[in-house]
Amino acid sequence: MGVVINCDMGEGFGLYRCGDDAGIMPHINIGNVACGFHASDPMVMRETVRLAVANGVAVGAHPSFPDLQGFGRRDMAMTREELAACVLYQIGALKAFLDDAGLKLNHVKPHGALYGAAMRREEVAQAVADAALVYGVPVIGMAGTLHEEVYRSRGLAFVSEYYADLDYDSAGALLITRAHAARDPVEAARRAVRMLTDGKATTIDGRDFDMKADTICIHSDTPNAVELARVLKESVRPWLA
Q1: What is the pLDDT of residues 202-220, one digit of tens each?
Q2: Per-residue DSSP letter, 154
Q3: Cα–Cα distance measured from residue 236 to residue 192, given in angstroms and rounded to the nearest whole number
Q4: Radius of gyration over alpha carbons of the chain, in Å?
Q5: 25-42 residues labelled b (16+ CB within 10 A) or e (exposed)
Q6: Is 161's pLDDT higher than 70?
Q7: Phi, psi of 159 (to 5 degrees)
């Protein structure tokens, strides 16, 4: 089974644009499209879905905490019931545009702080699972963490993920930053290939740790995301699904 490249995208709002989705699309396999609570709006969602159709890219929902000002990268305290409703609402909004375009909902991938919280807090992971189960689609997350355990225990398919444009701390935990810095595409691709061949990733202090992934992620708001996506795709082509 091969690997796929995914991208968090569709994150403009109104007249504001965030990332070059059109430039990234030819170099990815699946897009995680923002659903309006950390970024995006109806026109952005429709435009992003249409770009995906034109490029043969599968689309999943990218729900977040209701944190438009903080771009969904601030943690929030919500009950399981209200968070599940929040996630379900966002998936439903995106699915309307997928239905209009004749696309199936491919997966769910929590965004930013919600993704991080689901790795650490069971009630958050359970809330995501509550919503994802309504649609019966896989959920993307990080292998070996709490949310994998919760999603699998609920009967959801789990897609493990490696980040090409984020760092891992000294314990091997993902560092979710508020703003993303540009990455050296060649070095990022080299690390991704090493993860695929050796099953290893590197912490910020240079220590190796075990890593397995079904998909490699980049972010559309990484400053050089298009070049990163292009080089990454060429480098991992032998492993692509």
Answers
A1: 999 999 999 999 999 999 9
A2: T
A3: 8
A4: 16
A5: bebbbbbbbbbbbbbbbe
A6: yes
A7: -110, 115
* Chain segment 118-160, per-residue pLDDT in tens: 999 999 999 999 999 999 999 999 999 999 999 999 999 999 9
**Is 97 exposed, middle or buried (CB count within 10 Å of its CB: 0-12, 13-18, 19+)?**
buried
Q: Judging by beta carbons within 10 Å of its beta carbon (0-12, 13-18, 19+), is residue 170 exposed, middle or buried?
A: exposed
Which neighbouring-strand residues pair with 3?
240
Task: Please give the Cα distance from 113 to 167 (Å, whole number).
Answer: 15
Q: How confident is the model at residue 176 (pLDDT cuts 50, 70, 90)?
A: confident
Contacts of residue 5, defined as CB under 8 A and 6 or more positions apart, other chains included, come to 27, 28, 29, 30, 215, 216, 217, 218, 229, 232, 233, 236, 240
- Phi and psi for 207 in degrees, rounded to 5? -90, 140
CA pair distance 94, 156, nearest whole angstrom = 20
Among 219, 227, 215, which Cα is nearest to 184's?
227
